[in-house]
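2024-03-11 09:14:02 INFO worker-7 job=invfold-0412 stage=load source=structure_tokens
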């Protein structure tokens, strides 16, 4: 049971890491594009869309970093042999929910 949870977490972590790397690559591309047009950013209509794309990617990056952190916490709980406790009501999170979503921090009732 704990092994299945650990495997599920490890798999999601790999996915989350790949997604984060993907965002990092897009940000690096955007940075290069920005540097190419930075001379008259304000007059360049592309400058505006680059900025909004930048904010979108930064937001996405933060979301993925948070997801990774949540997965790491979940992995640490499994290592300590602990079930997860709902951060809202303090009751244990059902094992079935943790299998479907190892990084869950709330029980099914509180997630609604
Ligand atoms: Zn709850």
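2024-03-11 09:14:09 INFO worker-7 stage=emit residues=112
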């Amino acid at each position: 049971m704990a092994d299945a949870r650990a495997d599920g977490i490890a798999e999601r972590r790999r996915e989350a890491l790949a997604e984060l790397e993907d965002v990092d690559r897009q940000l690096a591309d955007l940075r290069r594009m920005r540097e190419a047009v930075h001379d008259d950013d304000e007059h360049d209509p592309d400058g505006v869309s680059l900025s909004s794309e930048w904010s979108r990617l930064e937001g996405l990056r933060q979301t993925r970093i948070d997801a990774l952190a949540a997965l790491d916490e979940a992995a640490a709980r499994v290592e300590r042999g602990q079930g997860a406790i709902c951060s809202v009501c303090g009751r244990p999170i059902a094992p079935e929910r943790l299998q479907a979503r190892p990084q869950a921090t709330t029980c099914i009732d509180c997630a609604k």
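2024-03-11 09:14:09 INFO worker-7 stage=report msg="Residues 86, 88-89, 91, 106-107, 109-110 surround zinc ion (CB under 6 Å)."
2024-03-11 09:14:10 INFO worker-7 job finished
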